[in-house]
Amino acid sequence: MTARCGWVKMTNPLYVSYHDREWGKALHDDRALFELLCLESYQAGLSWETVLNKRAAFKTAFCNYEISKVAAMTDAQLEDLLQNPDIIRNRAKLFATRTNAQAFLKIQDNYGSFDHYIWSFVANQTIDNPVINYKEVPAKTLLSEKISKELKKQGFKFVGPVCVYSFLQAAGLVNDHEVGCEFK
User: Fold this and answer.
1) What is the pLDDT of residue 1?
2) Tell me: the pLDDT tens digits for 107-134?
3) How far apart (Å, rounded) are the C-alpha atoms in residues 5 and 103?
4) What pLDDT shows up at residue 184?
5) Please, what is the end-to-end C-alpha distance for the chain in angstroms?
6) What is the pLDDT of residues 4-13, one digit of tens each?
7) Distance CA 171, CA 119 (A)
């Protein structure tokens, strides 16, 4: 039997695939980083499983997370998304997606790429944490608090320290796979 982190819901193939193929893998593609940041922002107050189950619909709704297209979405387009039962229909979160795309573009202009910007917070190296039990992993850290403040200064929304820590884990800036996990 394959050893995975204890948080993986084995009953949901999307969850297993996400853990095995994506979570904690060092990610450097700006479009993919933008998608993950958006997904983490949608999770606020909800379960990660809910977000994963709606991920494909979100990709369609937000132009495959092509940053410039999302940044140019109109209020009318965003309001129309509130009628889409396949996504999380939270007006503030949907409008924040456009706001975050606009802030993302500014970071790309100022730093060359979001990848360069975000990885600079960890000196371009994954922080490896020796996690024995996922239940011991903090929801936020001093690093996620710092990055959260910086992202908010850049104009991002729904990027509190808990959201940011989840993003850091997902994008591989922080490796919180359990030590016995075969997918780290």
Assistant:
1) 67
2) 999 999 999 999 999 999 999 999 999 9
3) 33
4) 85
5) 16
6) 999 999 999 9
7) 10
Q: Are 90 and 84 in contact (CB under 8 A)?
A: no
pTM score of the predicted model: 0.96
The amino acid present at 151, given as its one-letter code, is L
Both tokens assigned to 119: 């990885």
Q: Output b/e per residue, 51-81; b: 16+ Cβ within 10 A.
A: bbebbeebeebbeebebeebbebeeeebeeb
Which of 134, 128, 108 has the alpha carbon at shortest distance from 168?
A: 128
Residue positions annotated with a catalytic role: 18, 40, 48
SS (HEC) of the chain: CCCCCCCCCCCCHHHHHHHHHCCCCCCCCHHHHHHHHHHHHHHCCCCHHHHHHHHHHHHHHCHHHCHHHHHCCCHHHHHHHCCCCCCCCCHHHHHHHHHHHHHHHHHHHHHCCHHHHHHHHHCCCCEECCECCHHHCCCCCHHHHHHHHHHHHCCCCCCCHHHHHHHHHHCCCEECCECCCCCC
Name the nearest CA neighbour of 173 among 109, 116, 88, 135: 116
Q: Which residue bears the tokens 């992993």?
A: 137
